[in-house]
Amino acid sequence: MSAIAAQIPLTVMDHEDPELFEELAAAVRRVASTGAFTGGAAVTDFEADYAAWCEVPHVVGVSSGTEALVLALRALEIGPGDEVVVPANSFIASAEAVSLVGALPRFADVELDTQLMSAETLRAALTPSVRCVIPVHLFGRTVEMDPIMELARAHGLSVLEDCSQAHGARYRGRRVGTIGDAGTFSFYPAKNLGAWGDAGAVVTADEQVAERVRLMRSHGESPRYRHRIVGTTGRLDAIQAAVLRVKLAHLDERNRARRRVAERLREALGEAASMQLPAPVEPDTDHVFHQFVVRTARRDEVKELLAARGIASAIHYPIPIHRSEAYEALGDGEDVAPRATRLAREILSLPIFPTMSEEQIERVGGALRAIAVGEPRTPLVR
Ligand SMILES: Cc1ncc(COP(=O)(O)O)c(C=O)c1O
In angstroms, what is the span from residue 100 Cα to ligand 1's centroid? Predict the structure, then answer.
């Protein structure tokens, strides 16, 4: 054994798993050898498998999670003059899609414990022009959907679930994406279900929404050269579909492994008292641990101390969307999402991946316990 301990990465990609890599390379080769690079059986087979797995009637494969949001919003007839509520604590794409269809994002704050939008924070963001809400199941944790659905229905809003970080999580027994009017997924390589490039999907029980997304992803065309509506080049590549179909077969087991690793991390971190661990999962909600996010008042210092011990960590996200350069001009100077602003200073994503070993978990736990004991503590004010 080398005297220098190996680095612990934030996540592990497919090229580091030789068995899976060979299986995926063979699937890529099979598609490439047919010459069917767009559309064809690879795409329809994946869509059928993903629909069965998500327990939803329709899946339409598209080119990215952002395109999935854009096309779903257009299919729900959201456009200029409309406002859409988006949580301030999310990846910026949740808001960008709203802007790209010509509508205006309205930023909702999040709860400090779950770091997610709630019915209360949605209610505070409502205006007479709001026509849609995008709950984001961030980090893999499910948003408390029932009260949001109730409020949305009372105000006549469409509900579009952004499930890009929560593939397979269940809320009250239902897979995410099947609770609102439609759901969107990103299959960016680092996601719980990741392609070998950019890819995404829209899932819905609404046949009309599915049909509109299907038309728009390929220039509104059906049949060939009949362009019914204005669309785009937003298709899922056949090679990505083939990769995703192979990985889908492993996804339940990999999500279970993530939950097991999260439980072990929780135990291993037990004594790192200045740190707030992910809130326990409430009954009827779920967490597939795309990220394991802790909170600490000493975030930047802890990040550096971990790096010095060869342990990667990341900040998702250092600037809340409403305070990003792209969106700060929308505000009037007042912070509409102060909890999201505060979280951005305190959150730290620790390494988590399905094959994380007991030794790696112990090293992360040991490092954080040592940091908590060895340095002066600034307790986190709750
Ligand atoms: C919550 C969320 N929404 C949307 C997206 C956008 O997905 P993509 O990068 O595939 O366009 C991402 C991807 O990182 C995401 O995490």
Answer: 14
